[in-house]
Amino acid sequence: MTMNQTIPTPETACPASCPASVTATRANLKADKPTWCPGCGDYAVLAAYQKLLENRRLPQESIVTLSGIGCSSRFPYFVNTHSVHYIHGRILPFATGLSLTRPDLHPFVFIGDGDAYSIGGNHFDHCARKNLQLTVVVMDNHVYGLTKKQTSPTSPIGFRSKTDPWGSKATPLNPTKKLISSGATFVARTLAADPAHMLAMMEEAMDHEGFSVVECLSECVQFNRGSYDAAVPRKGGEFPLIPDDHDVTDEEAAYSLTKKAFPGYFGIYYKVRRPTLNEGEAEIARDMQPRPKGLVASEILRSALERLT
Amino acid sequence: MKDQRITAHDEETGNHTAVRSGPLTIRDSVIRIAGNSQDGIQSVGAMLARLAGRSDMEVMTYMTIPATISGGPSIFQVHMGSGEVLSAGDAADILVAFYQHSYEEHLDTVRDGGILLYDTTHVTPDIDALRARRITPAGVPMTSLTIEILGGTGKQKGKNIFLFGLLARVFRLDMKKVRQLIRERFGGKDESVLRNALLALEGGYAYSIGDVMSLFSFETPSAGGRPKVSMTGNQALAYGAIAGGVRFGAAYPITPWTEVMEQLRQDLPRYGGSFIQTEDELAAISAALGAAYGGTVAMTGSSGPGIALKSEAISYAVMAEIPVLIVDVQRGGPSTGMPTNVEQSDLNLACHAGHGDAPRVVVAPTDVEDCFHLTAEAVRIACKYSVPVILLSDQALATRIEAFDMPDLSTIEPAVFDRNGTVPTHKPYPLDALTRHAPPGTLIEDGNYPNITGLEHDENGHPSASSKMHAAMTNKRRDKLSSLARELPVPEVYGPEEGEILLVGWGSTKGIIREAVDRAKSQGRTLSALHLRHLNPLPGGLEEIFMRFQKVLVVEMNDSDANGCGQLALILRAETCLKRIGGITKTDGLSFRVREILARLPKEELSTVT
To answer: What predicted TM-score, i.e. pTM, was given to this entire model?
Structure first.
């Protein structure tokens, strides 16, 4: 290609002449054997994701799986798609760059509570307010697992860890409340121990136009065993679903749902349609398109330079 | 060429003009305009520079701005000429002083025999002091005349345009071109704005400043050659990135980098690309890496503090082998330092920022024209070798305006990635070839999709804790730089190929170092100079060149160690083990002057140094 290339548009990015793709199936999505501990909630998240992709009959090459750092973020090695294992806390801005430049893809991000709410907390707020087209699944286990039991931003008060041997003193962050106030346009909460509910939330998140987050409680059996029993009916707990009459577009109503004590509500807290940053940037690109149409990059640049003579 | 021309601004040649009868034809001149930052002197300076470019003259500018939003002293210096202009000039032929403080602060920068053009509304010069230095005073009531011309609005605005007219008269500039420029600059606005600007211009042009007019006339350069473009270093950098193929960028505002991102934000959509402002520096480089992974040629940039913040992701880019251009417009450091001053103190940061063994490429443009061409080349290198490339500009280069030949775009091949291709099989990290990522969307026929990762990995991108694999992959990442080094031409020596002293420089000091070599020659001392654009890896052949000189002095704007070596000097010492390498460094936050370099040379001929 030379300077005379025509500018790619979303329409020409994947021409109709694309060769026959292979549809994703649970069989061809299998990759490395997961290295999670036996009984870890993350297995169920992986299985739900693979089922989601299979249900959607997506071309395998069009799927992108992204992660940060932590137990959960080993995810990409266990699913055979285009995938990235990035650095701690920064996968959301990485996904931002990808989402904005590849309108033909829908990136999936899998991160833990450390990535999402601690080291990368600032990025979560900004991705939410920018309303980027992508889905984030936070595999929240209320503990730092990969580094072997330190306090996480969602650890409850009194949680004993290697960095809080006397019990955590700090108020845990309330993820759904935080995400709604940051401007996320889709906020759902689910539990890895309820695969059917989890899959339903992922389906809804993927279909959402905008920044969609699924806060997923995924039990760490090694360092936080039994932490979510209160939400598992077969262990004597209850799984409170968001009442059917909740208006998902009502921000105040969504906030009040976030106040319920643990295990809290499960389901879709908030869902609104707001222009995405992807749409905003595409609009700018359309408006700024040089006239006449069809100019190649070198011609546009030459005329820009000629204005400086 | 250079030494044959009459240089009116050169205080050391003694060719001052005031004592001659009749106007002296000069080939170049340095004008320093001193005022406050809201006086619009930058815009007059920029218009003078552009006019010089349009008149086939060489031009170079220099400016200082206060680190405050509004107010504070500011200067703009323009050096224009019909010969080769290498620097913004040591001493001014004409000082324009708007205020008493401008006059007091900058009178020292006027050469003996020069001209002081001052606003009588605000400045009372010491005539005796001027006479002692044969400086011709020319007082003009700039403020009150401007107010009179523009209908007594009482506003300070327009004084700069009045001055432009005045200078047009002094230098006998082509008024057709000047008026055209004013129309371009103010034409888009309210009609009264353009009318007032033209009135102020004509008022300045019509004003008679008597004696000054008889001092010299500016030589009209011979027309011909390629058309020239004039712009700042930051502008050239942005256009160079576009020419090189960059279609996505992300950054966080920081002085003096910000103008690059502002320009790309406005320009990239025209090329089907985009540039976004992120929440912080870490997000900026991460977004650039995400776009690059997606198959879009991408960049980020900042100044020193921001580059330091990006360093974890720089190591990731090395490990994951993702191409990205990272621009560092250096300023005075450490920490917040001196945001609007110049320094070359980020070389170590550029070469080593990050953790682990993380080889990356570092280049530094030498002037505004090179900001265009080297940025395009940096993009090419990043994409060819799947490596982060850090480009080191600096505050002086960022704000300096130069006129240079219209770039020949047909010679620049922009980098581009194939996004939706089909390949039978794909290894992201082959040990026997350069990494070339298959962006998402690429159909891989054998069904094995790649992992891009910061963990040490095997050829498929799967985690590997094998000691053999870590060694092999470390070699792979390092060998890319060796391949690049073999591609680089051995730099040319300016001046004799062997001798007593070789001045070595990098970045924005190229012109001033060459001017030092030229001036030393006119004073009977022979020097040579070598300028490096590629700093990591270094080009080959340097040791052989250094061996032909008794002393190698690295001129750089950063601090020196106990041996007098600055940051590049230390790197060159480590590379060549030559103790003859020393340094001429400074840390006053200002660009080098010719006389500062010459004053720091060893006084006598050196005996053999081993």
So the answer is: 0.90
